[in-house]
């Protein structure tokens, strides 16, 4: 495909993803109330224990802006099967026919991994808020700005969801030949630091054990992806070596005497 056709294909994929996200945002508006009840439960428990804790909307339209922001992020989560499919549909034309079967398998893995990462963050974040606000001294009050509170939640939900999909994307790029397994392996130190920082932010307390519970699944997924990339690199190298050996053998093979006589007799007959 020419560059213009690639850009047209990318535009069509982005439009389909945007439409799916808008439809998901409509569902996000419907799920706004139960979602808010869930994430504000830690503050309600603090209030029930006799402490002052509530969400503060700093402007007249603050509650509406918060609703829109939550609906868009929930729309991204609800529409994840569509935009993940569009991502793979844009990549898979560069693959061979046998490699597309692997791409379908990775697509089937990326959707539950993304949703699982989001669920892991949603499960951990309310406990994190309750644990961190528990350090407020007696007599103090927690008036949490709504935009900051929700942005903290939503960013970490998407961060965990995308982090679980990144290993699948790395393997997909390796299958297209754009990224080698050794290149991915060289960045393992940076990946470990980033994962530990994100897990420390989402951990429901300051103890390192809980942080490791959140970080270990992400690190396992990354190193599994590295192992798959290295395996595919070796397999690709063996295949190329066999093709090169076969090509060299056919090029070095001379023409036999019988082939020369048959060629001569056919030429004389003509």
Automatic annotation (TrEMBL):
<dbReference type="InterPro" id="IPR002033">
    <property type="entry name" value="TatC"/>
</dbReference>
<dbReference type="GO" id="GO:0033281">
    <property type="term" value="C:TAT protein transport complex"/>
</dbReference>
<dbReference type="GO" id="GO:0043953">
    <property type="term" value="P:protein transport by the Tat complex"/>
</dbReference>
<feature type="compositionally biased region" description="Polar residues">
    <location>
        <begin position="256"/>
        <end position="270"/>
    </location>
</feature>
<comment type="similarity">
    <text>Belongs to the TatC family.</text>
</comment>
<feature type="transmembrane region" description="Helical">
    <location>
        <begin position="211"/>
        <end position="232"/>
    </location>
</feature>
<comment type="function">
    <text>Part of the twin-arginine translocation (Tat) system that transports large folded proteins containing a characteristic twin-arginine motif in their signal peptide across membranes. Together with TatB, TatC is part of a receptor directly interacting with Tat signal peptides.</text>
</comment>
<keyword id="KW-0813">Transport</keyword>
<keyword id="KW-0811">Translocation</keyword>
<keyword id="KW-0812">Transmembrane</keyword>
<feature type="transmembrane region" description="Helical">
    <location>
        <begin position="103"/>
        <end position="132"/>
    </location>
</feature>
<feature type="transmembrane region" description="Helical">
    <location>
        <begin position="14"/>
        <end position="32"/>
    </location>
</feature>
<feature type="transmembrane region" description="Helical">
    <location>
        <begin position="152"/>
        <end position="175"/>
    </location>
</feature>
<protein>
    <recommendedName>
        <fullName>Sec-independent protein translocase protein TatC</fullName>
    </recommendedName>
</protein>
<keyword id="KW-1003">Cell membrane</keyword>
<feature type="transmembrane region" description="Helical">
    <location>
        <begin position="187"/>
        <end position="205"/>
    </location>
</feature>
<dbReference type="Pfam" id="PF00902">
    <property type="entry name" value="TatC"/>
</dbReference>
<keyword id="KW-1133">Transmembrane helix</keyword>
<feature type="region of interest" description="Disordered">
    <location>
        <begin position="243"/>
        <end position="270"/>
    </location>
</feature>
<keyword id="KW-0472">Membrane</keyword>
<feature type="transmembrane region" description="Helical">
    <location>
        <begin position="70"/>
        <end position="91"/>
    </location>
</feature>
<comment type="subunit">
    <text>The Tat system comprises two distinct complexes: a TatABC complex, containing multiple copies of TatA, TatB and TatC subunits, and a separate TatA complex, containing only TatA subunits. Substrates initially bind to the TatABC complex, which probably triggers association of the separate TatA complex to form the active translocon.</text>
</comment>
<keyword id="KW-0653">Protein transport</keyword>
<dbReference type="GO" id="GO:0009977">
    <property type="term" value="F:proton motive force dependent protein transmembrane transporter activity"/>
</dbReference>
<dbReference type="GO" id="GO:0065002">
    <property type="term" value="P:intracellular protein transmembrane transport"/>
</dbReference>
